Structure formats: structure tokens, C-alpha cells
UniProtKB/TrEMBL annotation:
It comes from Noccaea caerulescens (Alpine penny-cress). Belongs to the protein kinase superfamily. CMGC Ser/Thr protein kinase family. CDC2/CDKX subfamily. Coiled coil: none annotated. It catalyses: L-threonyl-[protein] + ATP = O-phospho-L-threonyl-[protein] + ADP + H(+); L-seryl-[protein] + ATP = O-phospho-L-seryl-[protein] + ADP + H(+). Residues 1-244 form the Protein kinase domain. Residues 261-272 have a biased composition (Basic and acidic residues). One of its GO terms (biological process) is positive regulation of transcription by RNA polymerase II. Pfam families: Pkinase. The active site is at 86 (proton acceptor). Residues 260-316 are annotated as: Disordered. This is Cyclin-dependent kinase D-1. The lineage of its organism: Eukaryota, Viridiplantae, Streptophyta, Embryophyta, Tracheophyta.
Amino acid sequence: KEGVNVTALREIKLLKELKHPHIIELIDAFPHKENLHIVFEFMETDLEAVIRDPNLFLSPADVKSYLQMTLKGLEYCHDKWVLHRDMKPNNLLIGPNGQLKLADFGLARIFGSPGRKFTHQVFARWYRAPELLFGAKQYGPAVDVWAAGCIFAELLLRRPFLQGNSDIDQLSKIFAALGTPKADQWPDMLCLPDYVEYQTVPAPSLRSLFPTVSEDALDLLSKMFTYDPKSRISIQQALQHRYFTSAPSPTDPLKLARPIRKQDAKSSDSSKLKTVKVTLSPAHKLRRVMPDRGKSGNSLKDQSVDVMKQSSHDGQ
């Protein structure tokens, strides 16, 4: 009666053109009765399940590997003039060989036409760049970079980094973590449709929020969280950052730990593995992280402490 969903058609059209090791593969799309069926390659889990699993230990090399695969997928999208616009951990799927792939291209759009306007109501709120929260209608790849920075921070902390419960609260969370931007830092900010002035908050050091990560990781994170989208690091530049060439090297995807599937646990006769239920934490639950992860990695199994006191509901 209402026809085929436009979002699904857009996703099919884009995925037919996007062929890359870190982009989900569209195998087939066909109508059946009143439904449109879309067939993708099989993927075991997603990055959100990895981050939330209390039984998984993520070393700095593991984090680097997951981030590198994410950025490689985004780099290909941007090279093809595609904005993803919905980057978040549960849209990053992980296959049986450990390869991470970008999925859910329903909000993706072609960019590059001068003067083209988009909606600013894209991305889950916790991954939305400040220019979008201020109502920007013209934007480019920098919005995906900001979201990738949020995912990077989430891998390091094992919880979402910026958890606002409204757009205004999201900006407050950003400014509390990164400081209130000044006009000389981001001149175009004052011209954005929904710009409002916030109380000036000095920027705390990123080291205080990420006390155990490497200097290279902090430097890359700070460049991904640059307020002015014109000055924000590009995906291509991020992949060339020294973070990826300094020790430790990214973990081979085949060696990355993943949540245990029920069928795997049941099929093991020699070992008495318990089934690990992957529970996606509700948005209103405060995420916690290790008090002393050091450079050996992070885990959710041990005693945990709050890194930032902040409410976190309605963010996804």
C-alpha cells in the first residue's frame, strides 16, 4: 500500500556500489509477497557486544585494531563521497574471521555538491558532532570523524564517553569534557542556526579523563575531537597518525577476542564453558571502567570506578 521503504532502497543502492573488506557485503535483495528481503553476509556479533562483555579483555593492541578497521571502512566511504551518518558500536559488525565491517547505511548520503543541505537529526545523540547539535545543515566527513572519536573513547573506557539525555544536555556533556569552545577556536559556531551561548568551562586535560592511555592515543583523540570541523583531522590523516605505527602493533583480527556464542559453548565437549549471554546495557545505566588498566588493556570483570559522574539515559 505504501510501497517499499525509501531508506531500504537507498541502502541497497549504496551497498551495491560500496565493495570493501570493511563494508558489510550485500548478497541479494528481492521482493517476496509484500516484503522486501535484504540478504547480507553472516556476521557473528558487533562492537557494542565486545565493549560491553565483562568476560572480554581488550589490550591496547586490540583497541588499535578495532579502530583501524573502523577508519579504513570510513576512509573508503569518504573516498566514494559517502557520509555514513550513523556511526556507533552496534553498527560495526564483526565476522567469524574477526574482520570489522561498517553496516546500516540507511542514513548514508552522497556529499560534495556545493550548497547541498542535509538534516542535522542524524547519528545517535551520544555520537553526534557539536555542529549537528547546533543545527548545521551543511556539513561533510568531519561528522563521521567525530563519531569515530566517540567510538575510540568508548573502546578505551569500556563505556560511552559522552552520554547526554537531550541535545542541550549532550552539548553540556561535551563542553564539560572538552571545554567550552571559543569564537577564535571555531569562528563559524556563532552562525549556526541553533547556536546558544553556554557558560564558559575550561578544558580539563584529556589525560585526566584517560589516565592510562598512550600519548599517541591521546593526541589522535584530541584531533578527532577538534571543535571546528574545518580543522578536525580527516579519516585519511587519522590513519596516517603515529598512533598506528607506534608499538604495540594492531592485533591480527583473527586473534581478537569475541563474545562466546551459545552454539559454540554447547558444542564444546572437552571444556565446560558456560554460555556467555551478551547483554546490551540500557542507556540509563552508568558505564564503568577499570581504575588501573595500565598499558596491559582493560576489562569489565574487575572492580570498577566512575570516570565521569554524569547521567546517561535516552542517548541511543
